[in-house]
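Lab notebook, bench 4. We co-purified these components, and the gel suggests they stay together. Before we commit to crystallization screens, I want a quick structural picture of the whole thing.
Request: model the full complex, all chains together.
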Amino acid sequence: MVPLSHYLVLSAILFAIGMFGALTRRNAIGILMALELMFNAVNVNFVAFSRYLPQTMLQGQIFAIFVITVAAAEAAVGLAIILGLYRNFKTINVDEINLMKW
Amino acid sequence: MEKAIDRLSSASLAWGVPPVVLQMTLMLAVAIAVILFISVSVMFMIWWERKISAHIQVRYGPMRVGGWHGWAQSLADGIKLLIKEDIIPAGADRFVFALAPMVVFAAALAAYVIIPFGPNLIIRDLNIGVFFYISISSLTVVGIIMAGWSSNNKYSVLGALRSAAQAVSYEVPLVVSILGVIMTVGSLSMVEIVEAQQRIWFIVPQFVGFLIYLTAAIAECNRLPFDIPEAESELVAGFHVEYSGMRFAIFFLAEYANMFTVSAIATALFLGGWHGPLLPPWLWFLLKTYFIIFIMMWLRWTLARLRVDQLMNVGWKYLLPLAFLNMGITGLVLVLRG
Amino acid sequence: MTVAHALFFGVAAFTTGAALFVVLARNIVHCAIALVFTFFGVAAVYILLDAEFLAAVQVLLYVGGITILLLFAIMLTSRISARGVKIMNEQVGSSALVVFVIMGIMTYANVKGLALVAAPPPASYATASIGRLLLTTYVLPFEAVSILLLAALVGAIILARREREKD
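Here is the predicted assembly.
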């Protein structure tokens, strides 16, 4: 039987990779993709706990469904914002969009 | 079948081979059998389509290759496609260009897991049966976008974007029309859905659902009247314009395999699956599936092509409200019936 | 090393490799395709955890929805042909350090704290239970999420619309 800690370590690794991508990529869509990686890592964590706790109440899976749904909504709005950014700045590299920087 | 597998597994244990090796070999054998079935079926469907189109257009179609009505025509076409030169356009993204047909074919192949050919002839009766098909069919769109983008060709990109928009738009009425059947049965498993149609096929209570499903399925397969993404006269074959030879053969195979899958699911969900009086169950299933394929081919050579804005209008403004109405009425009837 | 272990390590290695490709690839379209593979890897993890309905939902929504959104946005905004463009900003060193520290803390906590082994698989499949729970105990978050989706739909349409050239 695979112990729970294996799944949690996998979730931690995926979260770390996602965080690295969100902190370092210049392309705004690349940052969004790294964000999706972080959401997936969190979902793996939820579902692993929902499976391994003695009383399987499926709350982990239901929360994972909500996380997926909200991530989809957020990706849609985020990409619409990125399209607006591209139209105004002609670039989506986030370190070139610094009009409000002091 | 089960006893043979049990004997094989005990024999393999006696030889010191772990049972997982036997399971892997069985899975591989089943996958190869499915690919063979798809190949033969697709070759037949291509010949059949040429014959149907010919007779609708008052001509003969293939008559020479192989003697009787040109039955070996698709075999000859397949050999021709295989021996063609493998051309990759100059500025194309080689890796994505090569991967795209495989993704589309993988999506088409994976859906065969849940097709119920007969009472014990389903590869795996997943308890999320129909939902599995719905999830896997959304992978086709990713493959199409990859194909269009990597070809480095404006017509490809246009065709891919239109195809993606169309597929995504018609997925919603497809799923909602299936929901009427699922609500009536109370389970997602394909075998249970077919078993629930022993007395009456679901096409009778869910006739509107069947029509919506058929329309959305034709749109999902990119067939006329919804084939603006691969319209030969408009977009120079759309997203697969730069593909030739074996890669194009894989796209073609995937499209016809998709047609078979969609018709098979229509048969299982609406036409009673394998139920029928005299013939063996798998024969009934194949006959009903090919009947629906015949309807799809008939529609292709009879109706005119929809423009892309008309297509989106039909999907969002007519099919989707109708599908929701169907689901609502089905739910109401189920609740009132207790 | 049982089959379950081998399967888990295979799936975990595949998912981690694809995730690394997502954050390190140069061409953004390759990132999106690696993201598709990552989503499939996570769906495989869900199937290993007896959550097959969630695996199908993951493939349907992530691969069939979010990936297509991302690909559309990439096609509408990027200039692939630019060579020599940096893909990482100046924070690579410090963020790698921070990420390693956080990953180390999380891994240590996960390995040390929890020695749970799996409960036997549930008697009935989860799909019916999830449906029932969503419509009884969790109906309020369910409805709230539907309103959120409506707001996101309207917002995305308004944000992405072309400016009307009125004069």
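Residues 1-83 of chain B form one domain. Worth comparing against the SEC data before the next meeting. The radius of gyration of chain B is 21 Å.
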